[in-house]
Amino acid sequence: MAKLETKALSELLDYHFNIPSYQRGYRWDDQQVNDLLNDLLEYSNTKNGEYYCLQPIAVKKNEILSSHDNIVYDVIDGQQRLTTLYLILTYLTDVRKILHRSTHDKIYSLDFEIRFKTDDGDTNEHYLNDKRFISDDIEYKSDINKFFIYKAYQTISNWFKKAGDVESGILWTLLGVKGNEQSGVVKVIWYDLSDSKESSTDVFARLNYGKIPLTDAELIKAILLECKDEENLLAKEKAFRISCEWDEMEKKLHDPQFWGFLTTSDSTNSRMSFILDKVARDIQSERHYEFNEEKAFFDYHVVNRYVEEEEDTSLAIEKLWKRIQQTFSVFENWYNDNELYHKIGYLTSTVAYTYRNNSKELNKQNKSQIDSYYKKYISSYKVSQFSEYLDSLIALTVKLPVDQNIEDLNYNDNTKELIKILLLFNVHTAMRMNDAKYCFDRQKKENITSLEHIHPQHLDVTKIKSTENCHLNVIKPWIEGLSGKIKNNEQISEIYDFVDYEYYCNNFERFINLIPFVDNHFLSLVEMKEEDIHLISNMALVSKNTNSALSNNFLDKKRQILRNTQDYVPCCTWNAFNKSYSDSPEDLIFWHKSDRDAYLDAIKNVYFQYVNPVTHNHE
Q1: Which of 171, 339, 568, 619 has the fewest C-beta atoms lying within 10 Å of its C-beta?
Q2: Residue 439 CA from chain centroid, whole number
């Protein structure tokens, strides 16, 4: 089992590390080195209690190279950081002589199984530990590994020269003050896999598969499962129970519907991170920690501090696990409650739509959203009170100004309002069906935020060309869709002749002039004015792919396309194209005024249930 702890960098100064041959050589560039130095400078004036924690250093004892009094660790993950810190400490040697006289020459060793080449073709592994990179002016050219080490050291030197008098501050940050070397701000997450039965190469492959780094979830799981007393059967049973329950939670979180209603994230990694992040934020707020939420491994640092502060580690882990269980249980209760599932899912989807072009802000808003729901839920004396609270939030997402009517919303000026109202219409309808949940996961994945005109828009004559491609893909399908629909109108019946490409080319201008007459014919047929085409009574919510497929067809053809599409079709969209809102539909081909009125009434009925619940009874 892996051992996980936080170590001050100063604790590693006597350590011996081996970089196995399966690892690539040192490859940090100027940007990465400068970023690390800038972070160290930022933390050199940090408040007491804060520390700068490097990403995990994963190690495993090398049984062959180690002796009784000298343990050598294979570095499985983290060699780039260890090597860069080695170079920085080397640059600070003169300052260390002043501030750390007794330990100024202490520094961990790094041996590479990949041997460095020399000019004469021999190998030499001591280029780093002999510090030849300091005065090298030609040797670095003989080997790519030497080149990157040399260039990194030059970058470090240049950075310090430009930064001014910061050497002592950086050294304090790295190693602490004289007499208290462990007071340094820099610490590492020490991930010791020496007790693992896996070989170093197998562990390396697992940690680096797909170049996926260690996550907060993995590190926190290691804390929860760590059993320091291998002979304590009760502790081992507790760790096993936590492991099984963890896996069950993870499995549930990978249910697309469960994940889709709760979060805007597309994460395919450990979804337990969503739960752990919520717990970590709560703990930080309660304990008044000052870890930066935007920094890497925020969750781990908070949880690790929480456990370390307790005298009884076992009790701390038990308390931590109960918090995780409680958080998950709340989310599971939301999912199992049909109304809460749909209402929270709708609010999550509107946040995703609002911040769709800003992933950082989207993540922030989603966290804030879940935090506020959670707090309100646990403080509500009954579920109905919490549900009413969600209703009030939903109303805020769709409520229109007092001088604007829902029936006047149009495609050109009110796209955002239309999408949110139609989404609510679909979600609320699904909620009342009881036998099926709205698929928020597919809503997000398939981007169901496109507005489809139920009665087709006019052909855009500015985009019509007399080319074979345009005729084949646009004009011919449109004309075929009109088959049997033009009756008793000789003026426009000629439109059917243009299905022939040669006739279309020879009479292109006449075709263009004929289009408005065709459009007006169908507008008159369904009692629709030109401006009515873009009103909410003629809008339905679909995916962007479906929108393209539906094109400028009438209801019969669109219904066929919807029936065959692989994309998710929201229930109210299905209902509209099947005229389910009409009491006595005249036909199933055209979107008549009576159909539009009935559809609009259904939309308004849902809208006012949330916006004006006092005067409008819920279903």
Answers
A1: 619
A2: 18
